[in-house]
User: What shape does this take?
Amino acid sequence: MVTTASGPQLPDDPQLARRDPRLLESGHVIQANGYSDQPYVVVTRSGSWLCVVTSSDAHEGDSSQRIVARRSTDRGRTWSAPIDIEPADGPEASWAVPLVTPSGRIYVFYTYNTQNIREVPTDTGSSPRVDTLGDMVFRYSDDEGRSWSVDRFHVPIRTFDIDRRNPFGGDVQFWWSVGKPEVVGTSVFIAASKVGEFREESQGFQKTSEGFLLRSDNLLEERDPTRISWETLPDGEFGLRAPEGDVAEEHKVVGLRNGDLYCVYRSEKGYVASATSRDGGHTWSTPEWATFSSGRPIKNPRAATFAWSCGDGRHLLWFHNNSNTWFGAYRNPAWLSGGIEVDGVIQWSEPEIAIYADDPQVSMSYPDLVQFDGRFSLTETEKRTARIHDVDDELIQGLWGAPSRHLEEDIVLDYVHGAAEAAFTVTPFQLRRGNWRIEDARAGFTLSLVAEVHDLAPGRILLDNRDSTGRGICLEIAHEGRLRFTMSDGRRECSWTSDARTLVAGAETHIAVIVDGGPKIVLFVIDGRLQDGGDARPYGWGRFSDDLRDVNSARPLSVHGLARSEVRALRIYDRALRVAEAVDLRSGWGAHHGG
Assistant: This one.
């Protein structure tokens, strides 16, 4: 059976094309002057939004570093002028995390260089970075962020062994927080990171680090800030460390339905670290790498990774899906995974691209999730411009298993071969997304096929419609059971190769190749799992050139059957499917094709 469809055409008016909400510039700007970090939002009692930002007039770590707030009354579309929580002419104030209480009072907790220390000893000299040391302090607002308490209040942090190993022997504490406070029952938990030894900033600055929590059991109800109780957790001398290595930092804690705590944090080993507490933060499980429900570890460079609770046992995880072990330009794109609690454990879904920038060197991080009126928004910053983004609800719901409602209408080719047939040609088909520069969420296409390959000799073709100029697409077998996907516009060729042992001789395999024309990325989803490079390479996904043009070919598509390899069924979709949709294709293929 062979059916083809031309698919709808782009509207003449480019304004009618739906702009990709994942594109960095699609977000609404919160702040774009000087340095802008950790843009975290709380929703006030009246429904307005308050964003707290760590800012400076120059760059991260500048002596003008301070805390400001901005208000929005139109759900993040526009923001007020900055309101100083700490002024620029005082000691460094940094890494603010806000909390709104049932009374409507808003607290902001942050690192404050109380002693106005001007340099930090390192392993080879000293550093002028003095923004991760000092006291935890807070101010509060009772008028939805328009004004703030005159006094700042101190939060005591118990000294750990790592503090006594810092350059000041524990007399000064080095710490910072990146995650908003989490309310679990009637208790508030603030996750943060302590630092021990330091190295030169160009080498990573924090040499040893581990996590801790501040717990308050009366913050939500106590009106007198001097009577708020605080406890430093976990018990004992040591905090939350990484499964491997000396770096464990930027901890983010969430509560589970049964009252347990789950914490994720970054490491220098290329993976998301995690731990669970079953006793309110006093003790924790042995740290381990967080995994997808398939059991694969979740890759992440030395970049912030955050988990958020979304109610009803559902969660979201922000990370960067690569195992580079340095800061660098490895924070683009940003990915989300959906988590569902099963017997007190979060099972994480295959991930989706949430936000990307066209320039691979741009890195976005330090996000926040805003949940309001059943909708989801994400903040992020690339350190100078902080933005907020509306997230496609279908992307979010798909991460939690909701089926797609729009697959059938995007099929441009639907093919199933007969049992005795050897090879076929299919009438030429047209992909409407010939120009990758179009800022449209549908840009790209997807190949979905079921193959059973008996001969894995490299170079054997599965699909090919390239013409004499090379224009078109090709899927072939590469070395060690890999697949190589190639596409060309006749002047430029781009290709990406799957992980080793993608194919096993004689085994039926569902293959989805997603060509996403937004971030210009090729993804392989094999038997319902997004490839991530495994142990052999940091990435399982590859970028293609933004100079690539139309890859439509007038040549018929050759689909190779029993003579060389067996393609049992094939569909081509005229858009980049979400990963969740590709996962669903594997489970739904037999039902759609009678076997």
